Amino acid sequence: MTARIPTPPANPEEITIFVFGGLYTGKTRIIDRYWLNQYNTEYYCPYLLNTYNTRMSCTIAGIPCMLTFNEIDIPEEWIRDPTGIDRLWGKLTTFPHAAMLVYEVGSLRTLETLQTTWPPVQRYFERGECRVIKVVAAKSDDVGTVSVEGAVTWAKKVGATFAQCSAREGTGVIEAVGSLVLAVLEQRKREKEVASPQEKTHDPNIPRFARIIQNLRHRICG
Ligand SMILES: Nc1nc2c(ncn2[C@@H]2O[C@H](COP(=O)(O)OP(=O)(O)O)[C@@H](O)[C@H]2O)c(=O)[nH]1
Ligand SMILES: [Mg+2]
């Protein structure tokens, strides 16, 4: 009788994504679209509002991942006084792996809100070495009054990539989240290679050194 070998538990890559932006910029709908592939037309998305911390397992580029979406509304008091963010996050010791900075295409104020609050947010991200950041122009199905060039320029300035999406139409959401996750996975791969270079098996110098050593041995030992 053959013994049944239990399947080893999958070891998913844990990835926490901050979805950060002003109120009503479309953050909840982006998560809802990605998570459940739905667009809730009701004002509230009770399913998400009950949790705020949404965890989902998925496979991206063949790699099992566990994503945690952490939605953060920017309150008015942070816009008036962004140092409030330092006071709240300055001592935190947990950090996201990636972040989406969300504004809406029809509201310059929502982009300015991101710009105003960026310095303390950047300080927090830097402490946690969170470098995978995307500026996301939400509601791209709407009339876009905010200059895309202006937003792209700012994104570059803060070291972020840029994407547009519409949760309503279901366009750009999967791509935006997917590219963030891939960037995190690539960063982890690079860090692993730096931490343990001996694990690299494709060093082109290895066969060359082996030949040199073989030659030397031949000359010495005959
Ligand atoms: N046209 C359009 N409206 C959207 C889209 N996403 C969200 N909204 C609307 O914007 C409002 C706020 O969305 P929500 O996701 O709750 O914003 P949050 O406060 O940032 O989480 C809601 O009334 C949505 O109907 C979108 O992709 N297109
Ligand atoms: Mg919300």
From TrEMBL:
InterPro entries: P-loop_NTPase, Small_GTPase. SUPFAM superfamilies: P-loop containing nucleoside triphosphate hydrolases. Keywords: Hydrolase. GO terms for molecular function: GTP binding; GTPase activity. It comes from the Eukaryota. This is P-loop containing nucleoside triphosphate hydrolase protein. It comes from Lophium mytilinum.
